[in-house]
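Render this sequence as a predicted structure.
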Amino acid sequence: CIRDRSRAFEAGSHLSYGYQQRSDEMTSVGVSVTSRGLLTLALVAGAFALTESVVWAGAMMALAGGLTFGLFDLRRLGAGLREGDAPPHPSLRNVRRIAAATLPLGGFALLMSLTDNIPRLMLNSESGLAELGVFAAFGYVVTGAMALTRALDSAATPRIGRALADRDPALLAERVRGLIVMSSMIGAAGLILAVTVGEPFLRVAFGSEFAAYSTEFVLMAVYAWMVLVFGGLTVALVAARQFRVQLIVQVVTVVVVSLAGIVLIPEHGLRGAVFSLLAGGAVRLVLTMIVVLDVIRSLREPSDDLLGSSRG
């Protein structure tokens, strides 16, 4: 019940973000996303520290979502509903069109989750729960990095979409480049922190057992950097509706991670698991960059169907 309320508030906020994206009011979206993250962290950490109860922590997560929705997003959602276009008449044809367009995105999301979990399954089988626990904890480096750039990607989406709609390759290249630079700066800052204070941080936060894996922690920060840049490139592909090619790239990534894991994890354990992610992340990043460059190149050609289909 608590989880459902939290998801309901989050869905309401996302509807508000959609209306704000249409009018290019991205500052308020950034404020809302940042406030939600900070408020959730403070309330959940405080509740768990005081009660050590997952139920109270979940209740505080729902409260954070409700406060953010009520204070930042509800009024803007109401204004968007009043000023927006009339919703399309529901029909089976519209449902089929939406499903056909978005089905590759569902497969993409499934394979994204599978990419991170394949090394975990192999590591559990080959090395046991101890190294699996360390690997799972290090995985939150990627989760935290993605949370930092979520507002950045949301702000860039309508601007990149406008450059695509105007068929302006120079403007699209400039905006994609800016997004990549910002994502890279965040990734570089995280990597510098991992190299300089990673070992003492792990010792203080988790204990000496985790500090022994400081090299793997640095390597995971490199993977997080790759994920951040990949996220920026994905914004351009989503705006261009290149859903199927995203799915194909992710299939290749899963294959690479699986093969690398089969070769590396039995011999190298946790480090092999991280290297398998790095191999898959590098291949995914290169392939996605090639596709984005192809999208930019296609804008110079006389074509009307770039934004009218979900083909690769």
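Summary. DSSP finds ten helices and no strands in the chain. The first helix runs from residue 2 to 22.
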